[in-house]
Write a structure and sequence with these properties.
Elements: H1 36-39, E1 54-57, E2 60-63, H2 73-80, H3 85-88, H4 91-96, H5 100-104, H6 107-114, E3 122-124, E4 132-136, E5 143-145, H7 146-157, E6 164-167, E7 173-179, H8 183-192, H9 225-236, E8 254-256, E9 271-278, E10 281-288, E11 291-292, E12 297-298, E13 301-308, H10 312-326, H11 337-344, H12 346-354, E14 368-369, E15 382-385, E16 391-396, E17 402-403, H13 405-418, E18 422-425, E19 431-437, H14 441-445, H15 448-451, H16 460-463, E20 465-467, H17 482-495, E21 496-497, E22 504-507, E23 521-529, E24 535-543, E25 555-562, H18 566-578, E26 581-582, H19 583-589
Parallel strand pairs: 8-9, 20-22, 22-23
Antiparallel strand pairs: 1-2, 3-4, 4-7, 5-18, 6-7, 6-17, 9-10, 9-14, 10-13, 11-12, 15-16, 16-19, 18-19, 21-26, 23-24, 24-25
Helix pairs in contact: 7-13, 10-12, 11-12, 17-18
Biased composition (Low complexity): 29-44
Region (Disordered): 21-47
Enzyme class: oxidoreductase
């Protein structure tokens, strides 16, 4: 696909500004300036530094010989055998017929299942569940169907206790318990219901995130679904595999903002499209470089660039090519895109993106930002009217994002019975049923499924609870997270009464898949000393993360807290920092 063929015609949204409400006056503000250290003149770079480090060879991009000194082990695995061949040349068929013993007896095939299969969305759980895989899908904008949900339920059901599904912090499905011999048939089954797991792991573009209320929200700025769908189709070549972007230096996240609520969390993405007009044209300002890692976490910064809606794909292509061509491939902790931006300077990086645009031009950022900076973030739980007259959506709480096969079948039934057969996943690991006839909402609320775990009216602390996989399934996690998050929250709720939303995130290790730095209170798994001096499970506690237009990352509040000591500490933080009231005092006041 050539650059010139990527521009697509989008009509401007019918309503670019929100409806007027007393507390929500529209603010048109200039782009926030990038931090001083990032806007400084880029260092003087040798011309050789701007030479692309990869070259096209036999249909795949490969690191040039001259740039292979000091590369990390994952780069060596990619050089030894192109991971995408497992899919594009059907190498998975042969691999799936081998026993685990055969696979482990050869270095190359062992690397296939532990590294290269991640390009197909398959993650071997060698440490805790040898021979079992987690499979991550691509679900742009978090939109899925009842048929897709039933199919995924049918896959995990056969794996018994190991089979389950998680809603992820990128509006996506992950299914667990998969065994290698089943993979070819699962891939065919996914394709039959319009799903793919391709290019969802390792050094690839992750699931494009958008507004979970896209197309149904009366207050939306723009429907993000066309953009996120196009991005996903482009990046995966319509689920056939796109080698142009399968050899990035590291993973890469993208989102398209469609709401003043910023449900999409733009500040933690490598590329965020922020809706803005310019000279009467609708398009997007661009934020770049947001990421989390064990050694460094950074918020995205303005690129001082704006693209019309028609150029969403060419811009994405140009940014990815600049990162692919110029990003370093040494220490994995220093290969995310922000490190390249630091090295080149914002203007230097912008220049590299600009020269990769179809016409070699990239407009400067617009001052006509459409996101209302004073917007009060809305709660999507419960019943809410859609922009379509006579229809409503219902937000359901999924405790820490975990579902079993029967849960998924029941969600599919409810979507078919009361809605249009569609479900929406959110980055907070919850689910929305859209397109419910308003006359049927009361009947839906009376369904037993909604009376138990999957409530449309969860408690305040449960609403904002997010947890990564934890050490039940993930070999990198230091502590168990999902069950512990629920248990600690339940115990804290017995001690204090909270009157305003407080978001609590749990992550099992410093990779911070649970995004603890954006939470009001975050828990990062670690080992600490027990009373007898021996190592026990603990957590570093973060406080002060914020999402929305005034977003910023939380900071360490207390390090190395034993998990057995977390309940009183959390209760104390809630009282001191968030205005919670001890239950005993509340009862006395009553």
């Amino acid at each position: 696909m050539t650059s010139s063929s990527l521009s697509l015609r989008f009509t401007a949204p019918h309503t670019l500004l929100p409806s007027t409400k007393p507390r929500r006056s529209v603010i048109v503000a200039a782009q926030t300036a990038a931090p001083a250290e990032s806007t400084a003149s880029p260092p003087s770079l040798d011309a050789d530094r701007l030479e692309p480090r990869v070259e096209l060879r036999d249909g795949f991009y490969i690191l040039k010989e001259k740039f292979r000194k000091g590369i990390n082990p994952q780069e060596k695995v990619k050089i030894e055998r192109e991971p995408m061949k497992l899919f594009m040349e059907n190498g998975i068929e042969e691999l799936s017929k081998k026993s685990m013993e055969e696979i482990d007896s050869e270095k190359s095939s062992k690397e296939d299942i532990d590294v290269r299969l991640k390009w197909l969305g398959l993650f071997h759980r060698r440490k805790h569940h040898y021979g079992k895989f987690m499979m991550r899908l691509k679900l742009p904008n978090g939109v899925t169907t009842s048929a897709q949900t039933r199919y995924l339920a049918s896959v995990i059901r056969k794996y018994g206790e190991d089979g389950c599904a998680d809603v992820t912090t990128r509006q996506n499905w992950q299914i667990r318990g998969v065994v290698l011999p089943d993979v070819p048939e699962i891939l065919k089954g996914l394709a039959s219901v319009g799903l793919t797991s391709l290019q969802s792991g390792m050094d690839n573009v992750r699931n494009p995130v958008g507004n979970p209320l896209a197309g149904i929200d009366p207050e939306e700025i723009v429907d993000t679904r066309p953009y996120t769908n196009l991005l996903s189709q482009f990046i995966t070549a319509n689920s056939q595999g796109n080698p142009e972007f399968t050899n990035l230096p590291r993973k890469w996240n993208v989102c398209v903002i469609g709401t003043h609520d910023l449900y999409e969390h733009p500040h933690i993405n490598d590329l965020a499209y922020m809706p803005a007009t310019k000279d009467g044209r609708f398009g997007f300002n661009l934020l770049v470089g947001g990421f989390f890692s064990p050694k460094r976490c950074e918020e995205a910064i303005p690129l001082d660039a704006w693209v019309p809606a028609d150029d969403v794909l060419p811009l994405c292509k140009a940014v990815l090519e600049a990162y692919r061509d110029l990003g370093t491939r040494g220490n994995r902790q220093k290969t995310r895109m922000m490190w390249l931006i630091d090295e080149l300077g914002v203007e230097g990086f912008r220049g590299e993106v600009e020269k990769r645009m179809p016409n070699g031009k990239l407009e400067r950022g617009s001052s006509e930002d459409l996101v209302n900076k004073n917007w009060e973030r809305r709660d999507y739980f419960g019943v809410h009217p859609q922009k379509q007259e006579g229809l409503s959506f219902i937000g359901l709480h999924v405790p820490v994002g975990r579902l079993q096969a029967d849960d998924m079948d029941e969600l599919a039934r409810l979507a078919d019975t009361y809605g249009s057969g569609e479900l929406r996943l959110t980055v907070e690991q919850n689910i929305i049923i859209p397109n419910v006839e308003t006359s049927k909402t009361e009947a839906l609320l009376q369904e037993p499924f909604l009376k138990n775990r999957f409530s449309p009216e969860p408690s305040i602390l449960m609403k904002g609870l997010v947890a990564c996989t934890g050490n039940q399934f993930c070999g990198q996690a230091i502590i168990e997270t999902k069950l512990r998050a629920l248990k600690v929250t339940e115990e804290v709720e017995r001690l204090v009464a909270v009157t305003k939303p407080v978001r609590m995130h749990w992550t099992g290790c410093p990779n911070t898949c649970g995004q603890v730095q954006v939470a009001d209170i975050g828990f990062m798994g670690c080992l600490t000393r027990g009373e007898n001096g021996k190592p026990v499970e603990g957590a570093d506690v973060y406080v002060g993360g914020r999402i929305g237009s005034d977003s910023h990352l939380g900071v360490i509040y207390k390090k190395g807290v034993r998990v057995t000591d977390l309940v009183p500490l959390v209760a104390e933080i809630l009282v001191k920092e968030f205005g919670a009231v001890p239950r005993e005092r509340e009862e006395n006041e009553d």
